[in-house]
Amino acid sequence: MTDASIQTQTEPGEAQFGDFVALLKPRVMSLVVFTAAVGLLAAPGGVHPFLAFFAVLCIAIGGGASGALNMWYDADIDRIMKRTKGRPIPSGRVTPQDALAIGLTLSGFSVVMLGLASNWVAAGLLAFTIFFYAVIYTMWLKRWTPQNIVIGGAAGAFPPMIGWAVVTGGVSLESVLMFALTFMWTPPHFWALALFMKSDYEEAGVPMLTVTHGRRTTRRHVLAYTILLAPVAIGLGFTSIGGPIYLSAAVIMNALFLKGAWDILRRDEDAAEADKYKVEKRFFAFSLLYLFLHFGAILAEAALRPWGLGGW
């Protein structure tokens, strides 16, 4: 074995580049990047392409910083939950100290650079988003109340508002409704997950609604929030960033989402256990498509508007 081969080998438990990437929650970051980019591109006026790219990059880094701080604080419960015990900190590949340092460093970098590159309204919104997710949600709400995901969902709803502020320097009805769309979507999305991951949350002592009030109550809440979500999603279609493409997609997707929530409500627990929560898992997967298609339709309207084809 040569010296070069010895140097490239990794000791068991030693952190690799991929572990630090995982620390930033790339799957969550992808949603942050997409919704922030849509908010930026749909905003009136526009900015230089390089500035747009850099702004979205800063927002992504800020989202990743939030993920690192979340993993640092939640390492104790992540070790217990099957879904999370393979994460970098519980598995021992990244130390809590390194995760905290990365989270704080990237938080400061992303906020300052976004402020310098665009404006301090957008930077302030990004700073508040990081604080809300890392402190309000992770350190307080998540372990304190079964409404954790309802209030905490605000953290994931800010990116399109930040993207909009990068261009406009402020907040408007359109950006508030994009925020509201994601905010109202979050509870049914995560409660569907909690229905088939109840034991994980129960063992970790996280007061998810399924743990504190049971699956039957959670099913009712899924339907209730899906009903409340529909007018927000459809109402966005009548604003300046909406149009026939968005409105058609919103009507169809919300009809299907309501049907899925109704199917979840009608489920018998014995039947759900028998088929390993097939309906709930399908609803959870569809919820990801639901949000992607709504923001994709907003993007389509924005892309067609210069040719007089998008919008009203």
TrEMBL record:
<comment type="pathway">
    <text>Porphyrin-containing compound metabolism; heme O biosynthesis; heme O from protoheme: step 1/1.</text>
</comment>
<keyword id="KW-0808">Transferase</keyword>
<keyword id="KW-0350">Heme biosynthesis</keyword>
<keyword id="KW-0472">Membrane</keyword>
<keyword id="KW-1133">Transmembrane helix</keyword>
<feature type="transmembrane region" description="Helical">
    <location>
        <begin position="176"/>
        <end position="196"/>
    </location>
</feature>
<feature type="transmembrane region" description="Helical">
    <location>
        <begin position="94"/>
        <end position="114"/>
    </location>
</feature>
<feature type="transmembrane region" description="Helical">
    <location>
        <begin position="245"/>
        <end position="262"/>
    </location>
</feature>
<feature type="transmembrane region" description="Helical">
    <location>
        <begin position="148"/>
        <end position="170"/>
    </location>
</feature>
<dbReference type="GO" id="GO:0048034">
    <property type="term" value="P:heme O biosynthetic process"/>
</dbReference>
<dbReference type="InterPro" id="IPR000537">
    <property type="entry name" value="UbiA_prenyltransferase"/>
</dbReference>
<dbReference type="InterPro" id="IPR044878">
    <property type="entry name" value="UbiA_sf"/>
</dbReference>
<feature type="transmembrane region" description="Helical">
    <location>
        <begin position="51"/>
        <end position="73"/>
    </location>
</feature>
<dbReference type="GO" id="GO:0008495">
    <property type="term" value="F:protoheme IX farnesyltransferase activity"/>
</dbReference>
<keyword id="KW-1003">Cell membrane</keyword>
<feature type="transmembrane region" description="Helical">
    <location>
        <begin position="222"/>
        <end position="239"/>
    </location>
</feature>
<comment type="subunit">
    <text>Interacts with CtaA.</text>
</comment>
<feature type="transmembrane region" description="Helical">
    <location>
        <begin position="283"/>
        <end position="304"/>
    </location>
</feature>
<feature type="transmembrane region" description="Helical">
    <location>
        <begin position="120"/>
        <end position="141"/>
    </location>
</feature>
<comment type="function">
    <text>Converts heme B (protoheme IX) to heme O by substitution of the vinyl group on carbon 2 of heme B porphyrin ring with a hydroxyethyl farnesyl side group.</text>
</comment>
<keyword id="KW-0812">Transmembrane</keyword>
<protein>
    <recommendedName>
        <fullName>Protoheme IX farnesyltransferase</fullName>
        <ecNumber>2.5.1.141</ecNumber>
    </recommendedName>
</protein>
<dbReference type="InterPro" id="IPR006369">
    <property type="entry name" value="Protohaem_IX_farnesylTrfase"/>
</dbReference>
<comment type="similarity">
    <text>Belongs to the UbiA prenyltransferase family. Protoheme IX farnesyltransferase subfamily.</text>
</comment>
<dbReference type="GO" id="GO:0005886">
    <property type="term" value="C:plasma membrane"/>
</dbReference>
<dbReference type="Pfam" id="PF01040">
    <property type="entry name" value="UbiA"/>
</dbReference>
<feature type="transmembrane region" description="Helical">
    <location>
        <begin position="28"/>
        <end position="45"/>
    </location>
</feature>
<dbReference type="InterPro" id="IPR030470">
    <property type="entry name" value="UbiA_prenylTrfase_CS"/>
</dbReference>
